[in-house]
Write a structure and sequence with these properties.
This is Glutathione-dependent formaldehyde dehydrogenase. This protein is of the alpha+beta class and about 90 residues long. It has a domain of about 60 residues. About 40% of the residues lie in helices and about 15% in strands. Strands 1-2 form a two-stranded parallel ribbon. It starts with a helix and ends in a 6-residue tail after the last strand.
């Protein structure tokens, strides 16, 4: 899941994964519908943290120190994982 075409191509060519561009589709919904029959994935990894792309309002609030992080990547992870699945968060949320 990314929005940079070269990263999506690399992931597909190198690892054979299904690339998902989050600028074009809702990533969590796409993954759940197309890979798990609406069950959700077994595990997700948020390796980005607060640096994930968010809305303009989130960016402004973060820069003004009114909000610690956007959490958009983490929210996508939680939406995509199945009930009882694993959410790993090595990304920075500080």
């Amino acid at each position: 899941v990314d929005h940079h075409p070269y990263r999506l191509r690399f992931a597909h060519q190198t690892y054979g994964v299904i690339p998902v561009n989050f600028d074009e589709v809702d990533a969590a919904e796409f993954i759940i519908q197309n890979t798990t029959g609406y069950r959700g994935v077994d595990a997700v990894i948020d390796a980005v943290g607060f640096e994930a792309k968010g809305s303009m309002l989130e960016t402004v609030m973060t820069n003004l120190k009114l909000e610690g992080s956007s959490g958009s990547a983490l929210r996508q992870c939680i939406a995509a994982v199945r009930r009882g699945g694993v959410v790993s968060v090595p990304g920075v949320y500080a």
